Amino acid sequence: MSIVDIVVDCSAGDSGKGKVTHHLCKGAEYTHVLRFNGSGNAGHTIYHEGKRFVTHSLPSGLFHGVKSIIGSGCVVNKSQFFKEISELEEGGVNTEGLIFIASNAHVITDEHIAEDGKDTKIGTTKQGNGPAYRDKYDRQGILAKDVPELQDYIVDLYEEFHENGEVKILCEGAQGLELDVDWGDYPYVTSSHCTSAGALLNAIPHSWVRNVWGVAKIYETYVGAKSFEPSSAIFPRLRELGDEYGATTGRPRQCNWLNLDRLKRAININGATELVLNKVDILSDLGVYRLYTGGEEVSFETMKDMKDFIKQELNSSQPNLKIHFSGHKDRI
Hints:
By secondary structure, the protein is α/β, with parallel strands linked by helices.
């Protein structure tokens, strides 16, 4: 039987999904890595063989020689696509015969980018994603299979996953639940489906799903137009310690404490079986251990106290959830 594992962000993105995906690819013998939503509006920072890479639309499976596909839930900027391939090749990562695009993925045009550049309300990355998704649902978009320059990279997802024997797919999401078009803080959301259910829209039946890896940080960040960061000198300190600047735009991320109620919600909606909480060492460097739960701010004396509380609270409602704590310096 075919097997699918899914990596999703349980916050507002920027939580370390690329690191987790890169780690899972090391020894799991996946046949495919599928990027299932978003595009150039996302940035995954990956450390591979001593080098730092930032990918946007390309799946992380390329770093381990795994066949990698940009899925039907994505929109593709062809110029950026070829630019990223060149950057990986220049960095010593082979992509030849490994990178593909779903035939029914949609394409971002120059007109989409120009339109998105005028946004002042949402705080988008101005990569053209929103207008491209709008045209997709307005039934006037351009499919990747109809773009001559992309012909050598086109693949039919149904044929790939259902007509070539058993497959073992790792699905790599972009952004996070708090930015999901249906379940995020509307209208401050992205234009695609960021949940584990979004992966299934890429010709994947639910019966194949084995594990859902939820990823979050032990504190929260957000990039966009809404007000998110409380007025306190401690959060600029946290931003500097965590190097909280957007991988795609370089914009400073607003910071706040972990909201445990929102995290529980994300775990439940995504059906997470595993949870990775990243950047634990950054909070330790700050020397302040706080989170929100039940509408109240709770403080802890030590990181161990905070970890124990998180485990107790999450496992009380999800006893089978496996919780992993990881530091920023952990190059897993």
